[in-house]
Structure formats: structure tokens, C-alpha cells
Amino acid sequence: MKRLFFIIISCVLLWGCSEDYLNRYPLDEISSVDFWKTTKDLELYINQFYPSAFPISGSDRLQLVFASDLSTDDVVPVEADARLRGSRVVPATGGWNYTEIRNVNYFLENYEKVEEPFESYKHFVGEAYFFRAFFYFSNLKAYGDLPWIDQTLNSDSPELYGRRIPRNEIVDLIVSDLDQSIALMTAGISHDRTRLNKEIALLFKSRICLYEGTWEKYHQGTPFGVANAEPEKFLRLAVEAAEELMNLETYSVYTPGEEDKAYFFFGETDYSSHPEVLLWKKYDLALSLGHSRQFQIARGNGGGIGLTKSLIDSYLCNDGRPIILSDGSINPLYNGDGNLISVAENRDPRLQQTIFLPGAPLQVVGGDTTRFTRPTVDNPAHTKNTTGYQVSKTLNYDPVHHNTSETLAVGYSGWIIMRYAEALLNFAEAKAELNTITQDDLNKSVNLLKKRVGMPPLILANITQDPNWLFPELPPVINEIRRERRIELVLEGFRWDDIARWAAAEQLIIGKRPLGAKFNATDYPDLSVTDFRLTNGYFDEYRDILPSGFGFDPARDYLNPISTEELVLNPSLTQNPGW
């Protein structure tokens, strides 16, 4: 037990959000005898789950900073993703993680020992229910059906040998935990937006219910289909949770008024008063909590990744229409992709606030500005840009954050974990999937995000047909909401989840090889076309290693395999489809 508390203290130090957040007992004063006495004890225990749930990388390497986006059609890492290649195998050991679930269960079995009024500590009980839901959802996305354990177990507990419960039943239990969390946690902003509240639980509930509702809808008739599926039930719950959050009006879309800068807020140092941020990770060098995330991005290095042509082509022109019109003609506003400047001209302003263009600032010190010249497509290894479209999102111009080495963690720009824009997108998508969306729904959701950057609103009765819609078999409004989600949330860790729940690998991944920008000699005056792997003039990082494109298996690769060790230890477990 004493070792447990040392672990908890270490986790509190690692998260380190604020002084009163870090309030803790001296190590030599904590024991199992005098714990579970006060509200502070509960807060101390709960603090351990923040770094577990939100492990923000301090690494400089963009392959790690944006790791959750590598298994998608948005990003090309130097090494092709194993899931997309279809090259994964059943692991011998490892797999789902119940460690933190057990720790939450331990809290829920002991918190009633506290000798203070329930009202004084019920918020932390709500946090516990939130974290149990969070950790179960992480397992569910990876493995589908799961054993459900809501108590601490001993080595001889029969529950250790229980079966996997169907995923929809698991989601019902997760939603029940979140409903407890919503009822118990305090509403409103506290702890400089670095601690959970009721609104965050509502946002997370909308995320989970949208995920399950669309998974059940689009995986029907596949090996991942759900018996007795009720997609509409979960979609309605997603709408209700998002709308309740919206109606509370605690948060709002950040609208600074400068459309060409309105989206460029992902590298700031302080989000304590940012109207759109529900939860963020605060760094503090005084507590030895820094990062080296800016080392590559602020030095103009590619970070071993690049954005895809498919993503860039999805940005609308600033008249609200696609680059190719319904009759197959080119939008007159689109200046082509012959060079990096032209590709961003007359486009959704979020494009030039997501990728570097020649002449864009890298560092600003007083009146002295260091500017980006060209993508580092010729750099080695993890400093290379793979596609010619180089990431600028999360950049902070101040060189105080710009490390002089990979290991020197001097950056303290914050990291947004949850923001209000997701709630608006969840609401709109769930309404569209239910076929109940109205113009008023669009106006209070996705059109607020478009308005922020000066883009025309989405008009339900007048959606411009796009011959390059990724999902032409679906209604136009669903295609446009999916487009908006892709653009607004790019590099924020949502794209693989979206591909998985839409069962969209057939359209987006299988047999495809992602291209990048067009090679143009004016962009690279010091380089030759023969120096790179190109296809029809476009950067093609995987040309030689994936001549037939990605080998993703839609009957297998949407879920992870259960490890051999788990199957041997518990004969009641079944393997996932295709493995």
C-alpha cells in the first residue's frame, strides 16, 4: 500500500497543473491507516489519473507528437503504418490495460470512508466515474468486446476468467458511469481549465455515443457488426449530450476577428481564459515540466511526417465551393497546386494556418522575423518532410520555446486536450446521421466554425455537389460535415477513430498510396526532380515499398488482436475477427 502512494505522488508531480492542484501530503505522513479521511485524500488519489489518461508527449519528434494521426489518410510518416499496411501479427504478450480501471475501482470501494460531508467531495467521485469510462473507452476502441470489471479482484477471483461482453453493452455501462460523472461533478470553469468538470463529461459522452452509434450503423453486415444494434439510440444520446453542453453556454467558439489568424491558437502558453478550451495541459519550467515539442516545428524541420494531397484537396475555396465543381470544371478561384503559394490562394484560411508556406514566420523576436523557406523534403530520417506539405499547426513564434537540442525541454507552450469545436461537430454529425438536421442546427454548430475564419455558411438546401466527395453514396450534408470535421480537427487525434467508426478503410485506405505536393523547381531551386520518389510529379514516399498501396484487411484490421498470453490465461476469451 505504501508503494501505491509513492506512485500517486509521482503522478501528481508529473501532471503539475497548479499549486492547489499539487497540494499533497509529505511522503512520510501517508499510510493506509490515515488515508481515506479527507477530501484532500480523494483529490490526491484522483490526480494520478490525469497523466495516465492524457499522456502528452514531451518529445520533439512530430511522429510522436502527432502519433495518433499516423494511421490515417491525412499524414505520411517516414515508416508506413503497420495497421494500414496490414502487416500486424498477433502479439505474444500485452494488450488491453486494466491497471487504471482497477485503481479507479479501488477508489470507488473506499471513498465512503471519508469523514466529511458527501457534498464536499462528490466532485472527485464524479471524476473517478469519468476516468473509469475513459479507460474502458480506450480499450473498447482497440478491442471491441471486453470483460467488464467494476471491483478490485484478487488472484483467485473468478471474474479474472470471465467472458468478453458485447461492445454495445460495454458502451451502456460506460454511459452509465458518465451519467454518474455528469450528476456529481461541478459545472463551470475551475483550476484554470486544467481539471475535469460536468461540461467535459458531457463532451466525452457525446464523443463516445457518436462513435458507437456510427460504428453500429456502418459496420452492419461485416465481421464487426453488432447483434441487436441500436445505432439510433446512441446517436440520440450524442445529440442530447452535445446540446446540453451547448445550452450551458460555459464555452464558445474563439473568434478573435482576424480570419487569417483565428485558427492559429494551438501553440499558446496559457489557455486559462480561452473561451473554447475545456481542458488543457499546462507546462511549468519551475516544476521541471517542459517539453521539446517546438524543436523541429519551429526550426522548419519536417519531423518525419507530411500531410497528404487528399487532405489538402479537401479544403474548399473561399467561396464555399470545392476545387472541382459538379460539372467537372475547375473552380475559377482555385489556382492549382503547381506550387505551395498557389495551392493555398483563395482557399479556406485554415489551410495556411495548418501548413507552412514560403515566407511564413518561424520565429519572431521584436521586429526581427525568421521565415520559412521550403519544406525539408531532403532532410534525413526524423527531420524530413515526407510530402512537401509541412505542418505548422501548434507553432509558437517565441524562440524561448525553440530547443537547441532534442533533449533540452525548455518549451512551455500548452497542449489542448478538449475543445468546444468538437461538441459542435459531434452534434451536427449525429443530427445528420439521424436525418433530423435543420438549417438552425447547422447555424449553431458547423457554421460557427466556418464563420470564425470567414468561410461561407453551409446551406442545407443549397449544397454544392463535389465530384470528389469521399463518400458519394451518402447524403451531401454528411459529406460536408465529415469534411468540416477533417479540416477543423486535423492533427488532433480524431481521424483514425473517424475512419474506424465509419468503416471507411475501403474508401480511404485499401489499395491507396498517399501522395503529397507537386514537385516544383521554383520551390526547390537547389534540388533536382531525380532526387525524390515521385508519381506523376507528386511526392510519393511509399512508391517503392507499397507498389500496390496499403494492404489493410477490412475483415481484420479495424480492431487489435488479443495477445496469445491473454488467450492462454483465460480460455473464456475469444479472438477478434480475422486474427
Automatic annotation (TrEMBL):
Which Gene Ontology cellular component terms are annotated? cell outer membrane
- State the compartments where it is located: Cell outer membrane
**Positions of the SusD-like N-terminal domain:** 98-210
Q: Where is the RagB/SusD domain?
A: 298-579
Its principal location? membrane
What's the name of the protein? Starch-binding associating with outer membrane
Q: Which family is it part of?
A: Belongs to the SusD family.
Q: Which organism is it from?
A: Parapedobacter indicus
Q: Which residues form the signal peptide?
A: none
Specify whether Chaperone is a keyword of the entry.
Answer: no
Keyword annotations from UniProtKB, A to Z:
Cell outer membrane, Membrane, Signal
